[in-house]
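Okay, any thoughts on this one?
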Amino acid sequence: MLGKLLKYDFKWINKIMYVYFILLALISIAVKIVESLDQTIFLVIVDKALSSMFIGCAASTIVTCLIRIWVRFINNIYKDESYLTHTLPVTKNQIFNAKIIASILSILMSGVVVAICFAFIYLNSSTIDALKIRYQSLVDIYNSVFAIFFIIGLVLLVVFESIYIMISGILGIVIGHRFNNGKIIASIGIGIGCYSLLSTMSLVIIGIISNVIDYDIIGNGFPTMNYVTAVGLSSILIYLVYDIVYYFIAKKLLNKGVNVD
């Protein structure tokens, strides 16, 4: 049953997202074609316009994905659809887990599509050479294993922070809909508060760790391996813990009962 719930949630969230993916792909191709032509003043203007459209569409893709996740959660748990949802032969835990898994998969899919389109447009011989030089600097200063884990760490940090934004919104919705009035406004305010509170705390924690670990420049502007490792791992673990804590808080509150509109 969890699989069916997951499928329906994922399908609903991404029903509109495929339109954004197609638009991103088309704009990416258009940018690439324009940039491959002999540049005139007109084509430079067109290139700048298309590039701006691409950036806007990429940002809209991520934002829309998050909004659809939150809208799906509200409609399915608290609005008219909830009468069917809460009569299904499944537990609230299964309903909640399906939505969280579908949300994470949707965020990952949108992120991958945006990343591929960025790579398609901006990866050329010069940028690839620049990335190779930067990567080789990491290898020369540290080692190849550290360089690989550094890149993996950056990806994980982006993923965990994206999930944190999503789960902060979910927690805000769960708490906000326990109010009798102004549920949407309360959900938005609490969601922003949940995100801001721990984000500020993470900066404080990372700042403390940074002061504890010696910061020295060892070459090409890079700090010591111990410093990078401590700050990087701390950042990743902080957001992972935030995600887990908010997940369990939201699930526990949801299990206490739902006020259907």
